[in-house]
User: Fold Glycosyl transferase family 51 domain-containing protein from Sulfoacidibacillus thermotolerans.
Amino acid sequence: MRRVMLSLITSFALVTVASGLYIQSVWSPDIPTLLVQRVEARAAAHGGYVQLSDIPLFLQKALIATEDRGFYHNHGIDIEGILRALFVDLMKGRLVEGGSTITEQLVKDIFLSDQKTIPRKLKQIALAIMVSQALPKNEVLALYLNEVYLGHGAYGVGQAAKIYFNRSVQNLTPAECAILAGLPQAPSLYDPIKHLKFAKARQWEVLKSMVSVGFLNMKQAQQIERAPLYLVTAG
Assistant:
């Protein structure tokens, strides 16, 4: 265990230094602008960009509780998450753990590949820090909610609301919002049209996450979990 801890500390130091060097080498004020342009272009091709004010606050909170609890306080990266991921990677002997924040997921989706390599992870960390410094948190959240892939061909919560529930995202119920918030982890597996049982289990995980961070109490979570879902019929 001592050897693992030493390796963990060394690895984290190397990640920190390498990320810093990468930031210095690629820093550009154009990156945040390019990010916004690409997300808006993608949104235009998938039903249009949805403003954060038109996305239910419940959905915003559900996503944050599930994907990045420190979103409004971190600088684009989660130090504890990186350490946790490094520990798992060291124990497994390969890159297996993500540990990504909302900002990291956003920059990866727009600028990088899904390939699990150290150079790609370093780029992801560096880009997330740059974007976090340049853009307000609410804008980052809005960009993510407009580009995240949610399965069944849906990019962004606006298109997902139409595909799964045949309604605008503004009119989703808390139960339906919790379904969407659970999709980024595994969109195909938790597709509520094809795999309702798995989707409901994931919905409950989302609601429990909201309870654990104080967004809901357990009674409210149970009431929401029992609420009906007005899904589009498969086929």
